[in-house]
């Protein structure tokens, strides 16, 4: 019995370690970074699926930013009322701003500056999947 428990613990530790080891760091937009006019819906489709604990990196300059929108409606309408600012215009410099997808939820990302979201295609959503399925 004790042996069985021990084996279980080892497996659990192994699975956790593997999950951490496999987490990816993904630059949003790839070499295009986070900019006006690049289709991030398309980018997200091509880079899906995302997995739990994957790290998204937003690299950009002013006036862009990164907001988390509260729901599908606000996402479709580019309505920033009730949205949470994750990173301001100056936070995308250098290595950029990182978000770890560590919750099982829909993440609606968008930039709010001027028409970034409505005309500039600077929005996408991600739903991280479990790693060992
Ligand atoms: C952006 O990409 C999506 C998915 O490929 C596509 O459905 C949409 O029409 C594109 N938008 C524009 C404005 O090209």
From TrEMBL:
Domain of life from the UniProt record: Eukaryota
SUPFAM superfamilies: Cupredoxins
GO molecular function, one term: electron transfer activity
Domain Phytocyanin: 24-130
Keyword Heme appears in the UniProt entry: no
Signal peptide stretch: 1-23
Transmembrane parts of this sequence: none
Key words, A-Z: Signal
Protein name: Uncharacterized protein LOC115747906
